[in-house]
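Supplementary Methods, section 5.1.

A reviewer requested that the exact input to the structure prediction be made available. We therefore reproduce it here, unchanged from the version used in the analyses.
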Amino acid sequence: MLAPTSDPRSVLRRLQPATRRACDHWGDSESARQAMRDRLAEVQPEHHGALLTHFERTYPAQEIDPWAR
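The structure derived from this sequence is encoded token-by-token as follows.
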């Protein structure tokens, strides 16, 4: 879990791409993606850290492999 002193704006900046990865994983339509953005806007800031932890563990960012073809 994130440290309690984490900057809320920093958490939100990391949360947005994490939720996009979840939408990509499930092949969500644009309307489903908008619903995700709408729901995210409704989440109280004190819950952003827990949500970020969930999304980053469940839908981790892929590291770019410079040797992959």
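Residues 12-56 form one domain. These observations are discussed further in the main text.
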